[in-house]
């Protein structure tokens, strides 16, 4: 199995398949474009499964490594590999792509081929980000992934889509330019190597480490997004089509968090320890303050968008308390958030497709007309609150335990997200779903169809399976997390 270039397949099957979908052309071929897109998405997911079944959980070394010279003059290589930290994100990304194709099946009626192709190409590019072991290759994939998302928001988005798309693009591009400067500096310091693994071994003095850390903090912090560079996310979510919101929350936000694990912690570990207080402070502000901001939202999408910022604050907190519980809990939270946030946005999309409103005040009594939908929505709202036996609880509980080990008061403040999460999630659910039928639009609603039941049902199984039995997820990452923490601890000043 190792002779098969699985990572290249995970990257290029969706990209080339997306180009094939694009070639179907005009909307008169929309049924063909949809079927072809679904086939490509399923194929892209199937080729990632051997990454998990063939993964050796006893080692922290990179696996399924591929290495080909790309630009020999500058020692730039097509170098791919995954460890226990990155392999789960490749599989999650491929899985989410299938749900996005299904979610846009009937909703998107204009430029169907272009819409489906944009998601497939972006899926391949994001797999490239999670697999790249060469700095230039990582940067190329990182920047290229902006283009499909920019188009998805700008073409198929809401009334203010152009503003939201440009804001999203400029925020992320600014951070990326700082990262490019750092990559060039590391290239010179390493004697002409763009290998990320070589950079992990660089003996850098503390002063340049701090500058590099701050540059990475901006680059990846914007992508997470961390407070106070988070303002692009609610606008992007509100204007994006449902599929765009799903990918943005489930995968794109994870790119920034992944960057901390692959770059900030192992390359500049001393600076990571020196400035951990800064990241912890920003993370706690995101957890608490943004939780209160979510509580006052009148737009369902905006509420879930702010909820994502709060939950991702938990992730960055877990990374910088430097213990296995915290880091593993943060990674579990990233995977769980991929399932739960995707499901929440899909549920909002189901309502929006019928009523064409995201305002909470326009709903009420939905349970009377859509009982199946109400059951799914309740499960996902509970998972978003961190209910035990759902995936939302596992990661948050591990991070709180790790934070308490690090500092009781940090753990105590972080635990408030369980209260705030329940407050905004369940209050929204109560106003939308319970009570009397609010108006004629709600009275005329039809319950979810077989297609909607399929993608919500699959996500519900994932949320429950991960909540009841998280071992298959934690076991994969255990060796890699321990090695990362050993490396960071040994390098500590």
Descriptive report:
The mean pLDDT is 86. The chain has helices spanning 6-22, 30-46, 49-53, 87-103, 112-131, 135-144, 146-156, 161-189, 196-199, 206-223, 232-239, 242-267, 269-274, 276-295, 300-319, 324-355, 366-369, 371-385, 391-406, 408-433, 440-443, 450-468, 471-490; strands at 63-71, 76-82. Helix 5 runs antiparallel to helix 7 (146-156) and helix 5 packs parallel to helix 12 (242-267). 74% of the residues lie in helices and 3% in strands. The chain is built from 23 helices and two strands. The chain has a domain at 289-484. The protein has 493 residues and is mainly alpha-helical. A two-stranded antiparallel ribbon has the order 1-2. A hairpin with a 4-residue loop joins strand 1 (63-71) and strand 2.
Write the layout of secondary structure elements.
Blueprint: H1 6-22, H2 30-46, H3 49-53, E1 63-71, E2 76-82, H4 87-103, H5 112-131, H6 135-144, H7 146-156, H8 161-189, H9 196-199, H10 206-223, H11 232-239, H12 242-267, H13 269-274, H14 276-295, H15 300-319, H16 324-355, H17 366-369, H18 371-385, H19 391-406, H20 408-433, H21 440-443, H22 450-468, H23 471-490
Antiparallel strand pairs: 1-2
């Amino acid at each position: 199995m190792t002779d098969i270039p699985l990572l290249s397949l995970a990257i290029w099957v969706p990209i080339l398949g997306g180009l094939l979908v694009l070639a179907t052309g005009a909307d008169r071929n929309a049924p063909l474009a949809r079927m072809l897109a679904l086939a490509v998405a399923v194929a892209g997911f199937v080729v990632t499964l051997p990454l998990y079944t063939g993964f050796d959980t006893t080692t922290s070394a990179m696996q399924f490594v591929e290495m080909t010279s790309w630009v020999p003059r500058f020692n730039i290589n097509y170098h791919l590999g995954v460890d226990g930290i990155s392999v789960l994100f490749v599989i999650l990304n491929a899985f989410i792509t299938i749900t996005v194709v299904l979610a846009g099946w009937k909703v998107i009626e204009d430029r169907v081929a272009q819409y489906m192709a944009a998601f497939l190409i972006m899926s391949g590019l994001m797999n490239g980000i999670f697999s790249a072991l060469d700095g230039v290759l990582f940067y190329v994939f990182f920047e290229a992934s902006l283009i499909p998302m920019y188009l998805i928001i700008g073409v198929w988005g809401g009334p203010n889509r152009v503003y939201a798309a440009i804001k999203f693009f400029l925020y992320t591009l600014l951070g990326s330019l700082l990262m490019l400067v750092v990559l060039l500096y590391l290239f010179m310091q390493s004697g002409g190597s763009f290998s990320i693994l070589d950079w992990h071994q660089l003996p850098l003095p503390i002063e340049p480490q701090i500058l590099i850390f701050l540059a990475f903090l901006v680059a990846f912090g914007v992508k997470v997004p961390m407070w106070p560079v988070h303002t692009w996310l609610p606008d992007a979510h509100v204007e994006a089509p449902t599929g765009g919101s799903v990918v943005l929350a489930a995968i794109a936000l994870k790119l920034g968090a992944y960057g901390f694990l692959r770059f900030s912690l192992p390359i500049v570990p001393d600076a990571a320890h020196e400035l951990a207080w800064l990241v912890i402070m920003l993370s706690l502000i995101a957890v608490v303050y943004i939780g209160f901001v979510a509580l006052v939202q009148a737009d369902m999408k905006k509420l879930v968008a702010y909820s994502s910022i709060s939950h991702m604050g938990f992730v960055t907190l877990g990374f910088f308390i430097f213990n296995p519980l915290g880091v593993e809990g943060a990674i579990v939270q990233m995977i769980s958030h991929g399932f739960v946030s995707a499901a929440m946005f899909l549920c909002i999309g189901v309502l929006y497709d019928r009523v064409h409103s995201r305002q909470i005040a326009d709903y009420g009594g939905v349970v009377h007309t859509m009982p199946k939908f109400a059951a799914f929505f309740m499960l996902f709202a509970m998972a978003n609150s961190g209910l035990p036996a759902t995936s939302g609880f596992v990661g948050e509980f591990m991070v709180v335990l790790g934070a308490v080990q690090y500092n009781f008061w940090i753990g105590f403040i972080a635990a408030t997200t369980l209260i705030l999460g329940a407050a905004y999630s369940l209050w929204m659910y109560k106003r939308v779903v319970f009570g009397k039928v609010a108006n004629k639009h709600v009275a005329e609603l039809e319950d979810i169809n077989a297609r909607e039941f399929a993608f919500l049902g699959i996500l519900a199984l994932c949320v429950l399976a991960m909540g009841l039995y998280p071992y298959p997820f934690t076991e994969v990452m255990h060796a890699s997390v321990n090695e990362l923490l050993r490396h960071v601890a040994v390098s500590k000043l």
